[in-house]
Specification:
The chain is of the alpha/beta class. The protein contains eight helices and eight strands; from the N terminus they run E-H-E-H-E-H-E-H-E-E-H-E-H-E-H-H.
Length: about 220
């Protein structure tokens, strides 16, 4: 069901922040295709991670694309602070703001744009925007914290996204984030996902290169 190449995007949230530069370099050398940056504001989700200064620092280190996931209440207000440093910005469908204009603004500013959907949210919420995005992020855990267990019923959303992508002749990536390891990645790939976000499974693996390769196979 998957015709797109598999992309592995390790989540920097799981790294040792005392060694941020070394960790990013290590994971890139291990074969990361992208680096996934989880930005949380303490409002949309009950956690705070990092903001533009840390993203700017990572941008100075990274040689692979930066995939930035804004888990924040006002992505329309804050995305311009991230655009100069990253390649993709993904915003959530759940907060109350003008999603269409924000997606257009991200593209106009020079980045690709993604839309994320949390587990409780009906898939119908993202359907009107599928022709406006470069990436659909299906959350396979509730957003806000790493290390949670994969919610397999979310694969129905992945399959529906893959179906509509084919029916409408669209090209967006389908990304999954949450509880991704070699076993759950295989399930997600079979359902149509092609971008795998994993944090602890990669950064805390004894062999990061092997962990990354196992997400592709």
């Amino acid at each position: 069901m998957n015709s797109k190449p598999i992309i592995v995007a390790p989540s920097v949230l799981a790294c040792d922040f005392n060694r941020l530069e070394a960790e990013c370099v290590r994971i890139e050398k291990a074969g990361a295709d992208w680096l996934h940056l989880d930005v949380m504001d303490g409002h949309f989700v009950d956690n705070i991670s990092f903001g533009p200064p840390v993203v700017q620092s990572i941008a100075k280190i990274a040689t692979v694309p930066l995939d930035t996931h804004l888990m924040i209440e006002r992505p329309d207000h804050f995305f311009p602070r991230f655009v100069p440093y990253v390649n993709n910005i993904t915003i959530h469908v759940e907060p109350d703001y003008d999603i269409g204009n924000t997606l257009k603004g991200i593209r106009a500013a020079g980045a690709t744009c993604g839309l994320a959907i949390s587990p409780p949210t009906p898939f119908e919420k993202v359907e009107p925007y599928l022709d406006q995005i470069d990436l659909l992020l299906v959350m396979t855990v509730n957003p806000g914290f790493g290390g949670q267990s994969f919610i397999e019923p979310m694969m129905a959303k992945v399959m529906r996204a893959a179906q509509l992508r084919t029916e409408r002749a669209l090209e967006f990536h389908i990304e999954v984030d949450g509880g991704i390891n070699s076993n759950t990645a295989a399930i997600a790939r079979e359902c149509g996902a092609n971008v795998m976000v994993a944090g602890t499974d990669i950064f805390r693996a004894q062999d990061a290169a092997l962990a990354i390769e196992e997400l592709r196979e």
